[in-house]
């Protein structure tokens, strides 16, 4: 199936905000959200991927001098995973009975035969988080912030709940418009956003050199 890519273009991409800066020059493929959905539809079974995302950190407003804090993250994830099976494998590793059953989703509708969730007109990519490769917070004005500066205003994160495991199986749904780049199965993609990103869009802005 033909894909609407910007083939043959060479981009320089530098990610200065991570603990271990990533800098490389590759033949990237640029995707719209619609094209990303088409690419993901071809993925079968559990697949490892690396995402760079820009998300709202949901900091509380009271006493917060930084405004709407954005978080740019680079993370390893698994796509197309089976949640209950992943939890039961972890329970087995910890010597517990593998009798976990997943409850219905609290929000959104899983699109049949896909790894996507739809909620209030937006689509989300369901992932199992494997490892964080670094992150950086930014204030509403684009100022880089440390974890210590942001920590007092972050929401309290809930634990593993019903999983009953020591090592939580972390599931994260990323809205497609929060994904800035995606790499899996030897391919690397840069997302073309309908609405330009305020922070990561600048960090990831490709410079065409060929």
Q: What does this 3D model show about the protein?
A:
The protein has helices at residues 33-41, 83-93, 147-150, 200-203, and strands at residues 11-15, 22-26, 29-31, 47-56, 70-79, 109-110, 116-119, 122-138, 144-145, 171-175, 179-184, 187-191, 207-208. It is built from four helices and 13 strands. Strands 3, 4, 5, 6, 7, 8, 9, 10, 11 and 12 form a ten-stranded mixed beta sheet that branches. Strands 2-1-13 form a three-stranded antiparallel beta sheet, with no helix packed on it. The protein is globular. It is mainly β. Helices cover 13% and strands 36% of the residues. Strand 11 and strand 12 form a beta hairpin. It has one domain (11-208).
Keywords:
210 residues; ten-stranded mixed beta sheet; disordered C terminus; 4 helices; globular; disordered N terminus; mainly beta
């Amino acid at each position: 199936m033909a894909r609407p890519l910007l083939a043959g273009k060479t981009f320089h991409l530098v990610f200065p905000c991570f603990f271990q800066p990533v800098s490389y020059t590759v033949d990237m493929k640029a995707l719209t959200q619609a094209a990303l959905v088409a690419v993901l539809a071809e993925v079968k079974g559990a697949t490892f991927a690396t995402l760079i995302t820009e998300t709202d950190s949901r900091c509380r407003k009271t006493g917060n001098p930084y405004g709407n804090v954005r978080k740019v993250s680079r993370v390893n994830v698994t796509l197309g995973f089976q949640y209950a099976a992943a939890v039961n494998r972890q329970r087995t590793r910890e010597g517990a009975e593998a009798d976990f059953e997943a409850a219905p989703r609290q929000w959104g509708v899983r699109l049949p035969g896909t790894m996507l969730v739809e909620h209030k007109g937006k689509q989300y990519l369901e992932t199992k988080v494997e490892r964080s490769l670094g992150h950086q917070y930014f204030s509403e004005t684009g100022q880089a912030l440390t974890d210590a500066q942001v920590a007092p205003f972050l929401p309290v994160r809930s634990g593993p709940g019903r999983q009953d495991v020591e090592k939580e199986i972390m599931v994260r749904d990323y809205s497609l418009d929060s994904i800035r780049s995606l790499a899996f199965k030897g391919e690397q993609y840069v997302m073309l956003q309908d609405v330009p990103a305020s922070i990561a869009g600048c960090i990831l802005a490709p410079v065409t050199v060929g």
